[in-house]
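INPUT
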Amino acid sequence: MRHIASRVSQLTGEGALAVYVRAKELERQGRSIIHLELGEPDFHPAAPVVDAVRAAAAAGRDRYCSTRGVPALREAVAEYLGRTRRLTVTPQEVLVAPGCKMALALAMMALIEPGDEVLYPDPSFPIYPSFTRGLGATPVPFHLIEKNRFQPDLAEIAGKITPKTRVLIFNSPNNPTGTVYSDATLAGIAELAAQHDLWIIADEIYARILFAGDYRSIRSLPGMAERTVIIDGFSKSFAMTGWRLGYAVAPVAVVDALDMLVLNTFTCAAEFTQVAAIEALRDATNAVDAMVAEYRKRRDLFVAGLNRIPGFRCLVPDGAFYAWVNVADTGLAAEQVAALLLEEAGVAGIAGAAFGAEGRNFLRFSLVSARNLLEEALERIERVSARWRAAVSR
Ligand SMILES: Cc1ncc(COP(=O)(O)O)c(C=O)c1O
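OUTPUT
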């Protein structure tokens, strides 16, 4: 085998995909599977957005375009963040990328040096530690535990900061726990960032999928605009996963660095999707509110049902579209429970260790199937729970 650069061996994949592959295999064998493994909405973009992409392609908006993103979209993002998150952002502080993941990768490439330490939450999106390692840096987890309602412990974070710490990444609402960081948590992280001169990468991809109150971005806190990179995009809030469109909001010097990385890699995001994304941000049909209202109904139904399963315990998530279930009381390993659910009940979820060691006693279910399917999933889980019921002392 010819040599492959060692950084690739530092990277890890995403657990959801492996479960999806097995679930699809079972379906090919004729089994009925309820898919709750991928973080992909079962909604599609609103009709005006689809019309807009058609019109943009027909109008010849299919050329190379600005490496930073189409100016009208960057203006629309700045306006949208003012309207929905009360942030003061200029279009010059916005850079468009094909997907949040790409925006995240660019930001990490721009800010992290080999040998640096990067703080990140455990459990969380597995790409944070993976890509950190790929850049030759060390991922340092801080833990989101059930006892703290999955809010980070500021003293733990403070204790893990060293002279090598350069970046703190977090995601609120968090995938997989659904935790929305409290104002006190955000203020505490901001204070630590200022004290230790850290960059913050705030992955706000679920900011619109919120079940109570208004979203508060860490960038809105005093002094934070100059040290925060927001990552957001269209995949979750506008059900546009396959369109591959995201953006970073950062100080102009960082945007300049990201721009250089864009120029050296993908050149630009597709022009016609960017043009149509302006329509998504306009949200003329209030599609986001309707979608979030449906997620709320699913959350209420599914979480209440999960809490009736012997050995299962699930806190009510405040945002995102996941149920994060503690299955330790079943007496089985989370991997065994996940395998029983998939192989015997035809319900696909993910064992929590895929999101970090702290997730080892948990399962994640995505609330991306209709309510009748979620009800059916609960019935199936209830039936299979006979396998561990004897172990549960209630
Ligand atoms: C926390 C988090 N960040 C980023 C992403 C990736 O977003 P995109 O599909 O826009 O690349 C996901 C997708 O699951 C996610 O959960």
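end of record. The domain at 47-282 is CATH 3.40.640.10 (Aspartate Aminotransferase; domain 2).
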